[in-house]
Amino acid sequence: MIGPDSRQYKVASLPTEDPTDDITDVSLSSVAPVHVLCTERSMIVLIRADLNSNRRHVTAEELSLGWSTDSCKASQYSDTEYVIKADLHQCGSELSIDGDHLVYSNRLIYTPRQNSFGIVRTSAASIPIECHYKRTHFVSSIDMKPSSDPFTSPKSAVELIGFSFHLMTDDWRTKRSSYVYHLGEVMNIQASFLMAEYTPFRLVMDSCVVTLEPNAASIPRYVFVQNHGCLVDSKVPDSSARFMARKQNHVLQMQMDVFRFYEDHRNAIYITCQLKIVDMDLNIMNKACSYSGNRWLSLDGKDEVCECCENTCDVLNQEHIGNWSRLPKMSVSKDTTESNTVLLGPITVLD
Predict the structure, then answer these.
(1) pLDDT tens readout for residues 227-267
(2) Contact 219/242 with Cβ under 8 angstroms?
(3) pLDDT (0 to 100) of residue 67
(4) Are strands 101-110 and 94-98 parallel, antiparallel or unpaired?
(5) For the chain, is the Cβ count within 10 Å smaller at the N or the C terminus?
């Protein structure tokens, strides 16, 4: 792979066989309630049914790895255990570099379901999950010079991509250690992807939603980025939401006011965003727009790509663009290099 330092790396070989064939050797009763097995291409999470060590068994439906989709849900492994197997790039996993290791990190999400009387007896939990891989740097005789076309096809770049999604400190220098906020504070949210610096791509947020569960389709929900990159919360009266000035193409920063859902006693929220890596050509499908001074402004210039934020930014050809007819045809392209759904939370909001 190509690291963020533009050097070329190879990953030490790992067994490719599926360790689920031999996980009967692992006794979850004698170890932590959660056990992680890392293969060359996937992470396998074993979960004890008595997750909370209170003799109350959780259900498979209450467990998921990162972004809650069918492929990231738990399944029955035995009478007392569940298992989740996912590709290293699936379920919102993040790739980072820690010294001589590549680290794939995610979270096991436990969301207790209410019973027929509308009550729950345990608290939700978010458990960090990581797979570490030793990497070996090697020097190639080929000069690694930047290229205007570093990939022969968009798909060949996929293996080099690792998405990150974090809350940041006030000065944006480090990740925020606490996920607890008070009403009236502002959240600094940063998304990024890991790729060689010379690659001609940039990061955008296609959509974002806040929910009370780690499921973007749950109710209630508040969609604050929609229409392919329009930060609609920035147009709400008294909102200070905005995209921050871009310093690097692979990083996107946003500020948003802390809030809670009206008349709902739950104080934990989740932020789910659909991130896209796109080329450098601005268009109405791949943009980052904030509302300021009674008009929509593009983070990357060319403000006219944001005019559709007042309507629908999903046009298929030039003749249906209307007010945006002055844009070239390439401005309505839907081509995307790679996308991923990422999740932040639980974030605790106090009065």
Answers:
(1) 999 999 999 988 999 999 998 888 999 999 999 898 888 88
(2) no
(3) 65
(4) antiparallel
(5) C
